[in-house]
Amino acid sequence: MTAAPWWHGAVLYQLYVRSWRDSNGDGYGDIPGIIDRLDHLSWLGVDGLWLSPTMPSPDVDWGYDISDYTGVHPEFGTIGDLDALIAEAGRRGIRVLLDLVPNHTSSAHPWFVDAASGRDAEHRDYYVWADPAPDGGVPNNWLDSTGRSAWQWHPATGQYYLHNYLPGQTDINWWEQRVHDEFRRILEFWFDRGVAGFRIDVAHGLYKDAELRDNPPALTPDDLASRFGQRTVYSAHRPETHGVYRVWRKIADGYAPPRLLLGETWTGDLAALASYYGNDDELQLSFNFPVVFAEFPDELPDLIEQTMAALPPGACPVWTASNHDVGRFPSRWCHGEPASIRLALLVLLTLPGTTVLYYGDEIGMTDVAVPAELQRDAMTRGASPQRQRDRGRTPMRWNDTPAGGFCEPSVTPWLPIGPAEVNVADQRHDPGSVLSLCRRLVDVRRAELSGGLAGYQRVKSAPGVWAYATGSLLVAANLAATPAPLPAQTGEILVRTGRGAPGLGPAEGIVARRQAD
Ligand code: GLC
Ligand code: CA
């Protein structure tokens, strides 16, 4: 019998490196800063970290424009620091995943610099180049992530190049076999160093239509199904991309323990999401964006059942509600309501599969409105407040001092720090805090839901109550504004988000042992 994968029933912690802990006074978080504070993570009980991009980058998109896939960004430290982090985390039973960006490189990457030097350049075909349309305009109607044309004219060589994100993020041409060889080497480089896996950026990207056909108009304005009024039928989710993951999975499985591939699979279609698991021969984990964007809590019960039904048997679902693009769930899902924040953590941490917390989720950090003059994200500068990404990237609040324990008091952090009231130090010793609740839930999760994939079954309950059985547990969440009785199967109550009334208070949730009914 092979052991269950470590990510079944696990908790991953997305750590936005630039915003967690600045160790050297430049206002940016860094790797030595992470090592300093690893005890917070082992105390919280997480199984693994996903570090936002750590590789060298000109930072037009804060690391998602990589100029060297086997290096470490000098602002974050050295490769020796990263090795030390992997070792120190490992000593605490915590695995480290890196962020890999295979859809595009930085335009400063040596491959692109060479590709741009001439039509016959060695690396020309590593990128997507196209001649002007017959009328001299852009090759097709594809749009980038800001809504402008995804094509940039390159006068020196008389062709356009493709950028599905910013012009400094040049799309890779996955039809070129040498690109596959490069990425095999990159994967092996990091796996050999003890990296536990990758979060794969724009995992639905990679291949583009060979004929570069126009994208059709969108059927709905929904962000998950469309991009500025287009369905990205030809510029993303191409069938050939699955072949890349089949190869990468073989590479990952060749290691002991197997390395983990977690895809940023941006789709509103659960069948498309499921397709990235393949026949248990592609990604082991795929982010579920329909859940991220659901109305909390009302849309969750049905959506979770639909997810379970859509995934292939044995596939491990992934639950997350905050990240560096979409902002924080205490704001988006819960509108800052304490009871709702507590209920959301209870649900996230009791669903079978892998739960990914974003730094600050554990203390209920909310989005921070960053004034225009302090905004740092070029991609969403000037966009509507809900699209701006800086709001969810502000420094971790370690304590209530002006610098928040993120950096020294004399240093200006790269983004403003949120309100002092929500901080680790105050919550750590308060048994009623969000942090104490979160830690208790992580603990129960590890004890009851790890070591294999637990099931999920709705349980009959009073109107307005969402109850489910998973592993040995019964979870009940009162979605209504009025008190409700506990489900009949409720045994010993292990965690309560509310005050301990006899039943379930409004927006209250419980985790209990499950009794036969
Ligand atoms: C992903 C990242 C996002 C980045 C984009 C382009 O969506 O999460 O931050 O801007 O890819 O790399
Ligand atoms: Ca620093």
What does this structure look like?
With 517 residues, the protein is an alpha/beta fold. 23% of the residues lie in helices and 15% in strands. It is built from 13 helices and 18 strands. It has helices at 31-36, 38-44, 79-91, 110-115, 177-192, 241-253, 270-275, 289-292, 300-310, 329-332, 338-348, 424-428, 434-449; strands at 11-15, 48-51, 95-100, 104-106, 129-130, 151-154, 159-162, 169-171, 197-200, 260-263, 285-286, 318-320, 354-358, 457-458, 465-470, 473-478, 490-496, 509-514. The strands form four sheets. Strands 11-10-9-3-2-1-13-12 form an eight-stranded parallel sheet. It has a five-stranded antiparallel sheet with strand order 14-15-16-18-17, covered by helices on one side. Helix 5 (177-192) runs parallel beside helix 6 (241-253). The chain binds alpha-D-glucopyranose and calcium ion (CA). Calcium ion binds next to loops. The site of calcium ion (CA) has 6 residues, from loops.
Distance between the termini: 33 Å
Task: Assign a percent range to the helix content.
Answer: 10-25%
Total helical elements: 13
Q: What's the overall average pLDDT, rounded? A: 97
- Rg, rounded, reads 23 Å
Overall 3D shape: globular
Can you tell me the residue ranges where pLDDT is under 50 for at least 5 consecutive residues?
none
Label the structural class.
alpha/beta
Tell me the fraction of residues in β-strands, as a range.
Answer: 5-15%
